[in-house]
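Hi there,

I know you've been waiting on this one. I reran it after we fixed the sequence typo, so this is the corrected version. Both the input and the resulting structure follow.
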Amino acid sequence: MVNQADIDALREKPLEPRQLLIGGKFRGAEDGATMTVTSPIDGTDLTTIAKAGQRDVDAAVFAARRSFDVGAWSGAAPKERKKVLLRLADLIEKNALELAVLGVRDNGTEFKMAIRAEPGSAAATFRYYAEAIDKVYGEVAPTGAEHLGLMLREPVGVVGAIVPWNFPLMIGAWKLAPALAVGNSVILKPAESASLSLLRLGELALEAGLPEGVLNIVTGRGSETGEALSLHVDVDVLAFTGSGTVGRRLLEYSARSNLKRVFLELGGKSPNIVFADTSDIEAAVAGSINGMFRNSGQVCVAGSRLLVQKQIADEFTEKLIAAARALVVGDPLDLHSDVGAVSNAEQLATNLKYIDIARSEDATLATGGKRILEDSGGYYLEPTVFTGVQTDMRIAQEEIFGPVLCVMEFEDVEDAVQIANSTPYGLAAGVWTSNLGKAHQMVRAIKTGVVHVNCYGGADISLPLGGVKQSGNGHDRSLHAMDKFTDLKTAWFSI
């Protein structure tokens, strides 16, 4: 059990400047460029990170390709790769407190969530794929006696992984663990505003015995470092989590370079649907609050559109608003805080812009809507709820990625489905009902990758996460994630 004294002992720890990991060595950018890391907790500068340029990215890709071709990792027996990844999982768990506090100082997630969602999830993810390595088989085709047909899975080679700032360690592990498990070499590009925990992960990976060059980490701006990585002709696969705007750009980069495969998880505008026949309104309120306001709403699957059936709309909304007002927003390293900081100044400005847009569209501000704790120097926003939201409003169509909830009413199943499917996104959804048939009907009808029933969130590593429509393609989590990082090869023998 972590106590406040343990957290406080780490929160003021001075941080040395952080460097790039290339070819098994940490070093600065070739031109010496750096970027300042600013904490969203209080606006103070924590340290600097290296700002990788084209030559640094070239060096990282070269190191990855060389390590893959040498075969110390790609050619190792599955049981040997398994040993290393299990050691890495153990090291993540051993250093969980340090990793969690480091990440919170960097991106502002409330500690109570961060300790589970970051090192806790990352360790479980590496352990899952380590255990899967020697249990995933190829196939033998049904043929006549004169032939033998084999289907083999082989690593693709060099993988580029670009991850966001909201859950860098968790989402980083979702990309790294399956890619490494099947034998690839990887260049990881963290978000410029949340790189510290992933750089520490790089140190732990070397300590676990990962060969030099198998994992490389390049930090810097997406428009420079990320672009250089995405355009590189010696990167075979690109895996990305982030915005649709950047996702479209990565597809263009693929077309302009080597037609590398690009897998995109692009967020959503997820409907959380509460029917009048839900068996426990209090549980639905609590689930809706948690599904929206954890990590200040900076969650890809956040239930940012709350659809409530008209028969219970007044009662439910009243309880919801009271619960939102009761949330304690504050220092994310204080165990009394329910909600931490918005990750960076730019995102806070975006959130406030959408609040102004909602007002201009005549949505009703039921609670919140203001920046708070500004004297701290940090980036904090009240949990915000708008009622009277219509499907054609921008706040009902566009991903805000902040603690701003849209409440909408619906008549019946058909109305709920129409509203749920009315956005360009399709990542997640929630359904609250005591009617099993209705639940199945909604699971089938909602165009989305994940549907939660009588809960919101909580699916574990054994289940895939991926979107449809403009929420992207491919899947993180589960054995299906390994498909992104392998090539299927056919062997046809004449006997």
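Quick highlight: The longest helix spans residues 111-132.

Best,
R. S.
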